[in-house]
Give the backbone structure.
Amino acid sequence: MVLLLMQLLAWFLLENFYLDKHVRYIVTIYPVVILWLAGVLDNSNSPTSPIYIFVASILAFSCVMFVTRVALVTWRHHKQPLYSDSRASMSPVEIALTQSKLCL
């Protein structure tokens, strides 16, 4: 469980500060971890054990990180967009005509 906590914290820092332009809209890690930890808590027999309390604290921490990540993605999408809308919108057919033909 300590490794999971360290990996969550490392990934949160990497994706928000160093890899933002590459992984901005990827948020699937947090719901998966939240569901997994909720399953671990649901199958636990003793809610007073130290492991149960530690897993519950990791669950709360991952929920906070998920909400923070969604807020950061939303804020950055509006304040620092990845793509500028400087040229006119093109239809999918026009985009396809400008691409090099690999298969044809």
